[in-house]
Amino acid sequence: MKQSQCPCSGDTLDRFLRPTVMAVLARAPGGLHGYLISQHLRGTAIFSDSPPDATGLYRALKAMEKEGYLTSEWDVEGGGPAKRVYALTRDGRDCLRRWVDTLESYSKTLQRTVKFVKQSIAPKQKKQKL
Fold it and tell me: Which of 38, 67, 94, 108 minimizes the number of CB atoms within 10 Å of its CB?
């Protein structure tokens, strides 16, 4: 496995897709279609200027809609094919507020984990006799 494909690269933090999508939609009261959501996600810290996997994004959008966190409608106006436009629901906004607590908890856990891992790989110092 290439180092860039290793989970240790951090490029596979899928659990952060949902709150990030919800945050993007919270900033777009009229909603956004999937491609624009993907473009906005590209500019977030979690995706490091790389768009998320389109299949995973649409799977997450569909699941969040089924769970009542998003709504969607077909936009048939304008040229080109119809596009599904997603918007955050009231339940979605409540969920996003709860994500703040969850992410803050993750942050504390990650800080402790980083400290533990650093201590594991730090060279062991020889004890000096006094």
Answer: 108
Burial annotation 92-109 (CB, 10 A radius, 16+ → b, else e):
beebbeebeeeeeeeeee
pTM: 0.79
Strand ordering across the sheet containing 83-88: 32-33, 83-88, 70-75
Alpha carbon dihedral 55, 56, 61, 65, in 10-degree steps, equals 110
Task: Check: CB of residue 37 under 8 Å from CB of residue 25.
Answer: yes
Chosen CATH of 3-121 out of 3.60.20.10, 3.30.1490.110, 1.50.10.20, 1.10.10.10: 1.10.10.10
Contact 121, 51 (CB under 8 A): no
Tell me what pLDDT residue 2 has. 52
Residue 67 in 3-state DSSP? coil
Q: Which of the residues in the chain have pLDDT under 50?
A: 1
Q: First and final CA of the chain: distance in angstroms?
A: 48
